[in-house]
Amino acid sequence: MDVVCCLRQVSEKVVRQFFDSPEEAMGKIFRIDNSKSYKVTGVMQDVPRNSSMQFDYVTPLDDWINSPGDDWLEDWGSNARRTFLLLKPNADIAALNQKIRPVVQDHHDGYKKELFVQPVGDMYLYDDFRGGEVATGRITNVRLFSVVAIFMLVIACINFMNLTTARSAKRAKEVGVRKSIGASKPELIRQFLVESMLVSFLALFLSLNLVRMLLPQFNDLTGKSMRMDLTDPVMVALVLGVAVVAGFFSVVV
């Protein structure tokens, strides 16, 4: 008879596949890889798509260590399993790294790799290590595409300013007529500034709506889960700032 181990938690995705509710799944037996039987003791929320750690169930580590043929899990030279630590809020990360750095070397002769901890939030972007330190990772792609995006934005702003300048030359007669009937320079500046801001914010409105409509198709095409969070104050400030700067510079130029 198979030994039934505790399958600590399964995801809501697994529950939806086999049961009508999380309550119905509690206490049920799952057989994994046709070799081990587990009892469900909890149901967890699905892991977000943008997480670098994707899993549908959690099992006790002791079950792996005590399994036949898995003696490598107790080998100090094995790095196939990640270890997560919950530290105190004011923990000294540098001091902790200094203490644990030679632990594996002390238990495994000839092993040159060292231990250190890394914040979970940095795992996805900073995943390339050299000499026991974070060297680079996916953050390189983020920086590269950020530079490309800024470059394209600058080109768009320059084109907008050029078009506005070319159009202002055609409005020279209007400026002359308005000056002849008593319009002052500040009044003309305010007029052109308001017109430029209206065009800039209209373009912003159209672009945000296009992004909102096309983002789901883009995520399906790339397999990503990007989203436009306009509740983030930093994002809102950045978007509005670009619109204001573009509208203002078109008048200045």
TrEMBL record:
Pfam families named among the record's database cross-references: FtsX, MacB_PCD
Segments crossing the lipid bilayer: 144-163, 192-214, 234-252
Subcellular location: Cell membrane
Alphabetically ordered keywords of this record: Cell membrane, Membrane, Transmembrane, Transmembrane helix
Membrane topology note: Multi-pass membrane protein
Broad class of where this protein is predominantly found: membrane
Start and end residues of each ABC3 transporter permease C-terminal domain: 147-251
UniProt KW Transmembrane helix keyword: yes
Domain of life: Bacteria
Domain MacB-like periplasmic core residue range list: 10-102
Record-given protein name: ABC transporter permease
